[in-house]
Every structure is written in C-alpha cells, then in structure tokens.
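SAMPLE LOG
Freezer: B-3
Tube label: C17
Construct: single chain, 150 aa
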Amino acid sequence: MMRMVVLGAGAVLLAACAQPETKQEAPPMQQGVPAPTPQDVAIRITADQAGQRIQVGVNQRFAVELVGVPTAGYVWTPAQAPAFLTRAGEAGGNTTPEQSQPGFVGGNHWEVLMFAATAPGEGELVIEQRRPWESSEPPAATFRVTIVAQ
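STRUCTURE (predicted):
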C-alpha cells in the first residue's frame, strides 16, 4: 500500500514536470498621472527644464512641477526667488493611479509651486527639497531656473 502511494505521488510529480511551461506576460507599464496644475496657469516648468532661462509675462501665473517624497518628509520649498516674483498657490497629488487605491501608502507625489511675476526683471529661482525640521542639513535636491519676466 505504501509503495502505491509513493509511486502515485511520483507519477503526479512527473506529470507536473512534463507539462509545458506557460509564459506569463509582464504586467503593463503603469501610466503616470499628470501634475495637478490648474488650467489657468500659463506656463508649466518641469524638472527637465532645470538650469534653463524661462520667459514669463508680467502678471502671468506660472507653475514649477516637481516630484517629491512628502510622505518621507521631503518637500520642495523656495530657497531663493527674485523680488519681482510672488507665490501664487500650490497643489499636490498622486503620480500613479495606484496611489488612489485604499491601503496604498508612501511613494512619490507631485508638488506644484505657483508664482506670478509682478514686474519685469530677471533672476534665479531656486527651490530645494528638504525636510523642514532638518534645516542644518544640506538639501536632498535643488532645482534652479532663471526667470525672465517681460
């Protein structure tokens, strides 16, 4: 009786091994979620534009769209701005659809900082990513653009 059980189990194993392998397709690439920038913003500045000169109109609202890790405490904050710029709002949101699902925690998020030029001028806008309570530590990242307001 014992011999039949062992032989039966062996036959099942052999049959399982002999079956053709089924390839599983890789899961589809996740579609990103666009930055939650309001529609009335005239110019959208992205991380790819770091170091560039950006022209904006006087009294024109523009946005800097950066991805951060606010869930770990790292937030983007203006460190240097020309006197002719004023803050004109901020927005934040998910970078992937999965972040909207119940139980999802952490991950990168959009941080959108909006500004307006109140007068003509040219100057460097510097935005740093850091934990606010670690002010003596160097920033985790720095984003710089030269704003030319006309």
